[in-house]
Structures are given as structure tokens and as C-alpha cells.
Amino acid sequence: MATTRTDPLTFEVVQLIGSVVARYHEEYERAAAEHSLTGAQARLLGLLSVEPLPMRRIARKLKCEPSNVTGIVDRLEARGLVERRPDPDDRRVKLAAPTASGLATAKLLRGSLDFAREPLAELSDDERRTLRDLLRRMLGDDAEL
């Protein structure tokens, strides 16, 4: 059973994590808006730039309802950034996949997210690995990218 900590150090770490998350979301929303996308559309496009995914898996990764994912994919598809295609392993399943334009947009989005890159550049490789490992440990099973 996990122990809940209420000491000042834990409180400070939680506050710092909250600040990092807030700054990340602010920058992500700004970068998305520069491409006339919502934050959710940009996050979905970023996921798909790694690999085509079925709607249910996208919903799990974004922690939202599959019906919400369908609407987001519909809007991205209307803009020519995403397409639906049959899953080669199960023709009953449709995958959402980025188009060439979607991949280019996702790359531009990633390139404009400087908030974390600059501070991380000041850390050594060992410090970045330690930070990565601690974050993965904190997230447990949710550490999947």
C-alpha cells in the first residue's frame, strides 16, 4: 500500500510539477493556435505522428471518450491532416493516420515547443536520464508515450 506524504518537501514538489504542467499546456495551446488547431487536435496529431492508432487507443491515451476522439478526427480529416484507413491486422478496425500535411504540421508543432527544451539543455545526460526515470516511476503504468 502506498504511503501518502504531507510534508513540506512533497508539497513543494507537487507545486513545481503543477507549474511545469501549466506552462507546458500554455505553450502547447499557443503553438496549436498558430496552426489554427485546438490543443486537443494538436495532441491527437502529435500522437498519430508516431504511429496510426485506432480510436479507442487514442481515447485511452488522451484520457477522453471515444466519441470525443471521433469528433476531433473528423475535424482534422476535414482539414486534410488525418485520414482513416483499415487496420491491416483487423479490417473491422479503422486507424486514424496522419497525412503528409498532418506529419508536417506535427513536426512544426513539436519544433515550436521550446519551454522544456531550454531548461533541459542545461542538465547533463545523467541528470536527464534520472529525471526521465523518476517521472516514469511516478507515472507507473501510465508512463506510455
Automatic annotation (TrEMBL):
GO terms for molecular function: DNA binding; DNA-binding transcription factor activity. The keyword Transcription applies. Residues 10-140 form the HTH marR-type domain. Signal peptide: none annotated. Gene3D superfamilies: Winged helix-like DNA-binding domain superfamily/Winged helix DNA-binding domain. The keyword Membrane does not apply. InterPro entries: HTH_MarR-typ, MarR/SlyA-like, Tscrpt_reg_MarR-type_CS, WH-like_DNA-bd_sf, WH_DNA-bd_sf. It comes from the Bacteria. Transmembrane segments: none annotated. GO terms for biological process: response to stress. Keywords: DNA-binding, Transcription, Transcription regulation. This is MarR family transcriptional regulator. It comes from Streptomyces montanisoli. The lineage of its organism: Bacteria, Bacillati, Actinomycetota, Actinomycetes, Kitasatosporales.
